[in-house]
Amino acid sequence: MEENNQLVGKWLEEFDADVFGIGDMSRYDLDLVQLDNSIKKRLPYAISFGLVLSKAVMDTLEDGPTLLYLHHYRQLNYRLDMIAYLLSRKIEKAGFNALPFAASQLVDWKHQKAHISHKKIGVISGIGWIGRNNLLIHNVYGAQVRYNTVLTDMPLIAFNEGHEGSSSFSCGNCLACVGVCPVGAISEDPERFDHIRCFDMLNTFKNKRNLGHHICGLCIKACSGKR
Ligand code: SF4
Ligand code: SF4
Description:
Elements: H1 2-14, E1 19-24, H2 39-42, E2 45-52, H3 55-58, H4 67-93, E3 98-100, H5 118-124, E4 128-130, E5 136-138, E6 145-152, H6 195-208, H7 218-221
Antiparallel strand pairs: 1-2, 2-6, 3-6, 4-5
The protein binds iron/sulfur cluster (SF4) (2 copies).
One iron/sulfur cluster (SF4) binds near residues 171 and 174.
């Protein structure tokens, strides 16, 4: 199993992933959306991997998403989807099964859900914690990482939650994202994150800036970790 972990790490390095973790799907407490939930048992290992956003692109954000940020967001999603495909093929060629997901694809529009939560997978895979801005926080890159997931039956050793940072809430005294939200959706108490206010703002940005995507980026820019 240790050898398989090393292989996955080597492949992801070849594909230029910046961060990765390995999780045990029995720690994932959500159902898969619009997929047979038995997949969690048949493919019990989760590989979470991410690409770091360009600091210079993030610096272009002033009062909301820019067209350059939109392009960057989409390019990272394409690359993350390609990495998921390439990693799955490597695993299949090694004799196992692997299911690649999409980096950004809603399958339940009403409840704003994808097949799987990359954030939750990141937590169970030891990448980090859910921060005040309701995003997955890496202890080096903050919220400035986009993620994707592959599930597999290739035997792997799951990282401890907290392998890279801490899986439990570790924002500490930082409040850098709280004041930047234009609609005050972020509170000091992470339990009080206001999903509805955030979503309404994303909708406004999407329509007013003709983006075609629900993106904002302001609380991602504010959460730069130790970069
Ligand atoms: S994405 Fe934008 S609107 Fe939503 S919480 Fe972050 S800063 Fe606020
Ligand atoms: S900016 Fe600070 S408070 Fe906000 S999510 Fe990041 S680490 Fe947590």
